[in-house]
Structure formats: structure tokens, C-alpha cells
């Protein structure tokens, strides 16, 4: 304690006096190894199509995706989340469980070329259905129970290709249980499940839908994704996933849901907590930086740090490669 006249006060500034002191006293530190890099994979060869609303992000054929993975691995990232975009779509999304689609081939190729890397696959129907909804329709409603077997089939095809982790994102009730049972029945009890446990119907997914071509042709996803007003319900969704056999849990999006991340971390300490720094969060920082309104690197690192400080143990982010490089430069 210091004193000024009769007033006692504490000096905080000594611990902020230099970069070295600040670094040494940091309560939270970002590590590139905690990032998961999401990739959009397509069929064909030598294809690298830019996603206009997401600077630096591409839809890549499998060969290009492996080049990208190599780049990520060289800066310490070893987890990849694959989203597939098929050439043909239909009303139930049959291509989702085809062994020769881009996701299945990416997983197999990653396993052969980079055996220490982990492949995580997005399990959903929306990239594969002609109507862009996350499951099979009955009339204009997504049929929960009819969709479960489609998700299970898709997850199983990913496991058969060699996926380490399957990540159901459709927000159908019972999806984790259906997938766990299908995996176990087929002898894939070692494959982990990452539940998109608390996935909100968010305005921040816009650029992703551009990238994945998964905008619903009618309506929206509010009848299956969570309303942004819900925190208690998020805890119940997570608890249900854990009971159904999810090894890891997720809160998506991250930035507007830091309180949900903090609650989830406190309530479910035994399950690794992932947070998804979604496309809209990525693109708005890029857009502001391109206008000279904020500094790209500083804003991105601050955002990622806040997600970790809130309690996330793994961060799925399109900034992964850049951020891992920036952290290395700083160290
Ligand atoms: Zn979906």
C-alpha cells in the first residue's frame, strides 16, 4: 500500500511498466496450439476459390487443402475442422455420406500425410441438401427424428475415412446419442464426438453461408438453433450432449456469447470446451481493418484472447494461421 496524505492506495502500474513485465504477469496467454483451423473442401483438383466475404479464406480441393494444412502445421496448428461442399445436392443430402466426397477424402489424406494432426468433421446436412436446411423435411418443417439416421450415417462415413472427431452441428435433439450408437455398433468406439452443444441462431453466420452455399431456400434455422436470449437453456443443451456421450462441448458463436462460454466452463469442467469464432466475427474485423478503422492483428488477437479468458480451451477460428504467426512473432 502507498499513501498520499491520509489516503491509502494500491499501485497497479508497476506491473504494467514494460512489455516484458506485462508478458510475465499475463493471467491469460494465447497459444497457437489451441486453435482449430476450419477448412471448406470441394471436389476436383488444384482448385482454390476465394470466398469474397471472407478475406484469405478459400474453398479448396483436397490437394490444395493439404497444402494449406501443411502451412498451418508449420506454425503449430494440428487440428482441422472440415466442411464439405458437394457438386450435387438433393432433398435429403445423400452426398453427405458418400465415401468419395471431399470431406471423407480430406480426412483420409490428412491421416496419411500428417498422422499427428487431428481431423474433426462437421456433421450436418445443410451443405448437401438442395433446400439448405440441416435435415430432412416433412412439408416445410425439418423432421428431427428422420434426420437422426442421416446424421448417424454421415458421421459413420467420416469415421470410416479415419476422422478422429465427428462434430454434429444440426441441432437436432438426440443427435449425439444417435451418432454414438452408430459409431459403437460399427466398431468405432474410439472416435470422439464434439457436440455443437450450444449453437445459436445467429446473424454472424452470414459469410459462412456464402462459403458453404448453405443459405436456406426458405425460412430460417430458428426452429432448431437456440435463441440468443438463452443462457440457462444452453447449460441444459450441453448437459444433454454430455449425457448422450459427447466427449467435447462447444459454444457457437463466441464473441456475443462469452458469458455462455464462462458458464459452460464452470459447469462442465470435465469436458474440453470449444468456442467457434465464427465467420461474421472474422469478416467484420477484416472489413473494419480494410477501411483503416482498426488494426487487424491487434483486434484479432484481442478477440481471441477474450474467448480464451472467458474459458474456452480450444478456439475454432479462421484467423488460426495468421494468429499463430503473430503470436510467434511476439514471443
Ligand atoms: Zn447445418
Query: Given the structure, what is the number of helices?
Result: 11
Strand content: 15-25%
CATH topology: TIM Barrel
CATH superfamily: Aldolase class I
Q: How does the overall form come out from the CA principal axes? A: globular
Mean pLDDT: 96
How many domains, in number, for the residues? Answer: 1
Weakly predicted, low-confidence segments: none
Helix and strand run: EEHEEEHEHEEEHEHEHHEHEHHEH
Radius of gyration, in angstroms, nearest whole number: 21 Å
Looking across the biggest beta sheet, what order are the strands in? 3-6-7-10-11-12-13-14
Summarize the structure in short.
The protein is an alpha/beta fold. It has one domain: Aldolase class I (TIM Barrel), CATH 3.20.20.70. It is built from eleven helices and 14 strands.
Can you offer a commentary on this structure?
The chain is an alpha/beta fold. It has one domain: TIM Barrel, CATH 3.20.20.70. 39% of the residues lie in helices and 19% in strands. It has eleven helices and 14 strands. It has helices spanning 19-24, 62-74, 102-113, 144-161, 175-185, 206-212, 232-244, 258-267, 279-290, 296-310, 320-330, and strands spanning 2-4, 7-9, 35-42, 48-50, 58-61, 79-85, 118-123, 137-138, 141-142, 165-168, 192-199, 248-252, 273-277, 314-317. Strands 3-6-7-10-11-12-13-14 form an eight-stranded parallel β-barrel, surrounded by nine helices. α2 (62-74) packs across α3, α3 runs parallel beside α4 (144-161) and α8 (258-267) runs parallel beside α10 (296-310). The mean pLDDT is 96. The structure holds zinc ion. Zinc ion binds next to loops. Zinc ion (ZN) is lined by residues 124, 126, 134, 169-170.
Amino acid at each position: 500500500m502507498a499513501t498520499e496524505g491520509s489516503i491509502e492506495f494500491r499501485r497497479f502500474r508497476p506491473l504494467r511498466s514494460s512489455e516484458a513485465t506485462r508478458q510475465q504477469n499475463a493471467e491469460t496467454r494465447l497459444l497457437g496450439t489451441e486453435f482449430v483451423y476450419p477448412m471448406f473442401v470441394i471436389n476436383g483438383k488444384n482448385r482454390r476459390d476465394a470466398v469474397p466475404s471472407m478475406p484469405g479464406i478459400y474453398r479448396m480441393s483436397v490437394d490444395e487443402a493439404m497444402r494449406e494444412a501443411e502451412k498451418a502445421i508449420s506454425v503449430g496448428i494440428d487440428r482441422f475442422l472440415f466442411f464439405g461442399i458437394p457438386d450435387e445436392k438433393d432433398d435429403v443430402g445423400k452426398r453427405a455420406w458418400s465415401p468419395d466426397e471431399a470431406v471423407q477424402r480430406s480426412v483420409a489424406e490428412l491421416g496419411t500425410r500428417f498422422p499427428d494432426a487431428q481431423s474433426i468433421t462437421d456433421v450436418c446436412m445443410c451443405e448437401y441438401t438442395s433446400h439448405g436446411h440441416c435435415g430432412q423435411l416433412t412439408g416445410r418443417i425439418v423432421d428431427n427424428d428422420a434426420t437422426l439416421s442421416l446424421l448417424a450415417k454421415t458421421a459413420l462415413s467420416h469415421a470410416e475415412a479415419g476422422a478422429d472427431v465427428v462434430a454434429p452441428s444440426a441441432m437436432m435433439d438426440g443427435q449425439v446419442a444417435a451418432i454414438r450408437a452408430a459409431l459403437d455398433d460399427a466398431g468405432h468406439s474410439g472416435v470422439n464426438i464434439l457436440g455443437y452443444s450450444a449453437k445459436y441462431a445467429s446473424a454472424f453466420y452470414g459469410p459462412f453461408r456464402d462459403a458453404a452455399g448453405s443459405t436456406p431456400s426458405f425460412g430460417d434455422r430458428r426452429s432448431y438453433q437456440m435463441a440468443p436470449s438463452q443462457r440457462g437453456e444452453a447449460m441444459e443443451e450441453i448437459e444433454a450432449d454430455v449425457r448422450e456421450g459427447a466427449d467435447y462441448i462447444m459454444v457457437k458463436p463466441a464473441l456475443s456469447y462469452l458469458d455462455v462460454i464462462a458458464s459452460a466452463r464452470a459447469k462442465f469442467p470435465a469436458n474440453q470446451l470449444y468456442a467457434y469464432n465464427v465467420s461474421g466475427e472474422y469478416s467484420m474485423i477484416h472489413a473494419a481493418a480494410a477501411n483503416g478503422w482498426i488494426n487487424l492483428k491487434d483486434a484479432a488477437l484481442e478477440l481471441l484472447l477474450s474467448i480464451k479468458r472467458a474459458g474456452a480451451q480450444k478456439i475454432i477460428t479462421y484467423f488460426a494461421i495468421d494468429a499463430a504467426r503473430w503470436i510467434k512473432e511476439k514471443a
